[in-house]
Amino acid sequence: MKVHITNLYGMAYNSVAQISQQMVARIGVENFNFNELGIYSYYDANESEEALSSRYDGILASVGANDVIIFQTPTWNTNEWEVGLFNRTFVYENVKRIIFIHDVIPLMFESNYYLLDRFIDMYNRADLLIVPSQQMLDYLREHGLTTKKILIQHMWDHVCQIDPLIQPANNKTISFIGNIEKKTQSLMDWDSSAVTLQAFSDPAEWGQGKNVRFVGWQDDSLLINFLRRSGGFGLLWGDKDDWVKYMRLNCSYKLSTYLAAGIPVIVRSDTPEVEKIRDKHLGIIADDLDTAVNRVAAMTDDEYNQMRDAIADFSPLIRDGYFTKHLLADAVYKVLYD
Ligand SMILES: O=c1ccn([C@@H]2O[C@H](COP(=O)(O)OP(=O)(O)O)[C@@H](O)[C@H]2O)c(=O)[nH]1
Q1: Which residues contact 253 (CB under 8 A, 6 or more apart)?
Q2: Is 177 in the pocket of ligand 1 (CB under 6 A)?
Q3: Which end of the chain has a smaller Cβ tally under 10 Å, C or N?
Q4: What is residue 207's predicted lDDT score, i.e. its pLDDT?
Q5: Reported ipTM
């Protein structure tokens, strides 16, 4: 019996969808001897049926009867393409199918909502599903999900190394490592002089005259220690309507990046892992930016260092990939035995 895992290629080098799939696949290959099924992301709408059929056969060439396939989804090709690949695996006898849901496209973009039933129909044909959160599971159940075997991801890993000589300090800085212009309009109205907003993008007009520091995109090899050196907090935010709703269901990659770097986080009270963040003292919980900024401005070094030390205790799990190792091992075990 072989275990296969799909892996995404062809996207921009800074695509977080690709970065996260490649990290999961690498953990599976290096720790459990999984076999990789490479998937190229491309514009598939005009591909002939014949070409598509050969492509599917090529992707699945190493699969045999009784194997396990872990599909990392979405593949970011069209839904028809993805379902087509999934369907093709039914020609192999007794193959077990695990779908690892990284994102649910119909819930990310309102214009794709009409596709939700088709996605759920595919999820229902999996032997086991890995879902990002209990909240996502509840949502999918309310919308027709019936798959019995379920695992909850809870948190991303961010495999990396830190420089332990750099200690994050209570600098009055809030870092945001996402796309401000696309997802967080309110950050563009930054008006705090006490706390600096650190944006990981190129200088933009909206930041002029404000207490905003633009540091540009940092390659993964630099990002973690850059965040450690900056200290302060890592912000998880969004204020576009569909994004706010989606953030209540998904597992945020940037949340794990901040924790991997060892800096406390700022999250809303409806963030899926908020209880762990509260119980383990990993950051600040605030539902509006003013409250968050005031808490950061008023924070004492002692209070900050307690959070930093609590994160240092827990974050090796994220940096060494234990959430994913645990999940992948459990998924294979559960699909074959439990
Ligand atoms: O300068 C940067 C800024 C971001 N990122 C990566 O981009 C991720 C955030 O992407 P996104 O906002 O799509 O993640 P989400 O939190 O929405 O899952 C971070 O965790 C980093 O891995 C990076 O490598 N360099």
Answers
A1: 16, 19, 20, 156, 158
A2: yes
A3: C
A4: 97
A5: 0.98
